[in-house]
Amino acid sequence: MAAAAGSGTPREEEGPSGEAAAPQPQAPTSVPGARLSRLPLARVKALVKADPDVTLAGQEAIFILARAAELFVETIAKDAYCCAQQGKRKTLQRRDLDNAIEAVDEFAFLEDLSIPFPDITVS
Questions:
Q1: Which InterPro entries match (predicted)?
Q2: What percent of the chain has pLDDT over 90?
Q3: Which of 115, 86, 85 is nearest to 98 (CA)?
């Protein structure tokens, strides 16, 4: 959003087609106690160091890996929850994850994996 000339009030910027452009995401504000990552970075770093092919991993790389893992878990969980809702349930079951994996091409690399998964109730 930009300020209208001389008025001091914000106005929406227009895109190339004359339509209002989507608002730009704002940088997170510094809130005491706020974390940039919900996963413990020390645990992510330990997992990265467990790989014999990795010799060095900078703090930025660890943070990016943690954030990517968060986004991946969030995405697959949302897709699995949609499958649970279609079955009129609030509890995620293994079959919901399996259905989400089958339905979304980006999850094809997870097909044919046998990973134990407990049922999770979403309130």
A1: CBFA_NFYB_domain, Histone-fold, Transcr_DNA_Rep_Reg
A2: 48
A3: 115
